[in-house]
Amino acid sequence: MKKKMTVSGLFILITGLTGNLAAQDLHKVTAYNLEQLQEYFSYDPDQPIIVSGHRGGMMPGFPENSIEAFEKTLTLMPSFFEIDPQLTKDSVLVLMHDETIDRTTNGSGPVSEYTYQELRQFNLKDRNGKVTPYKIPTLAKALEWGRDKTIFNLDNKGVPWELYADLINNLGYTNLILSVDTLEEALFYYERNDNVMFCVGIKNMEDYRTYENSKIPWDRIMVYAGYTMDPEQNEVYSLLHEQGVSTMIAVAPTRDQEESKQAKKEGYRKEIAKKPDIIETDYPSLFLDLPLTK
To answer: pLDDT tens, 238-291?
Structure first.
């Protein structure tokens, strides 16, 4: 089955979904409306730390930004996933972190110089450089697959804001959170979309006041606090928690870079001890046997 949609000039392709893994029970994270999305991200001191898969999470044989990696992670644990949409030459949104496909596929060259069908000739590589059977997915295929399985945090890689806004409004997904770089970007979506939340950077009191004085309500916000919880910003974290806002740290540039699994886990334990509400990592499966209670 194939379905085509046009959203303000953006071509969306949804193909029939065929699982590459054997049928298994998944640890699903669902949000069928904005209220459920808000509930998932609301601060709760008694809730264990949430682990999020950066670039969809990754394991040997399962490449970043692939549906197969999402599914594999969900066979092990509940998680939501940060993903990276980019536009192809023919305006199809595909999942790809880098501007080129060199690092993550067996091809080369900029994403923007290929049509989607041309990209289909290439296979994704895992983090160790092993070529897998898996193909570059469209954003639409990923969203359709995850509709009743997980939540996606979309990190904009240069896609025009209006295309995101139209996509969200027309396709009606309620399991999305948008990472934004500025208040201006957050306001753009807020004024056009009433079914998403925003991941915004608040790392100090100045950032907190910026959003406090905006018209975006706190229940539409999840906060990116940086690479670690900074003790000097405890007042900010307390104010956010009073507003019901969860805080997330990203360890991909730090603890994830340790060479051995043991060293990674030791680093994760140190971050867990600082009590973030969410930890974003390349390797969510390594948190399986770690104590995530606050």
So the answer is: 999 999 999 999 999 999 999 999 999 999 999 999 999 999 999 999 999 999
Q: Domain span at residue 277?
A: 2-15+27-287
Tokens of 227: 């690479």
CB of 146 within 8 A of CB of 71?
no
Judge whether 249 lies within some domain: yes
**Please, are residues 287 and 268 in contact by the beta-carbon 8 Å criterion?**
yes
Q: 136 with 95: CB under 8 angstroms? A: yes
Angle of the 205-212 helix axis to the 234-242 helix axis, nearest 10: 20
Mean pLDDT over residues 203-228, rounded? Answer: 98
Contact 134, 146 (CB under 8 A): no
Which pair of tokens denotes residue 152? 């996606």
Handedness of CA 15, 16, 21, 23 (dihedral sign): positive
Residues in the chain: 294
> Which CATH number covers residue 71?
3.20.20.190
Rounded Cα gap, residues 110 and 12, in angstroms? 20
> Residue 293 falls within a domain, yes or no?
no
Q: How far, in Å, CA of 18 to CA of 111, rounded? A: 24
Where are the extended beta strands (E) located within the chain? 2-7, 10-15, 50-53, 80-83, 85-87, 93-95, 152-155, 176-179, 197-201, 221-226, 247-250, 278-281
- How many domains in the chain? 1
Orientation of helix 161-171 relative to helix 139-146, angle to 10°: 40
The answer to whether residue 20 sits within a structural domain is no
Q: Has residue 175 been placed in a domain?
A: yes
| Residue carrying the six token digits 């998680």 | 79
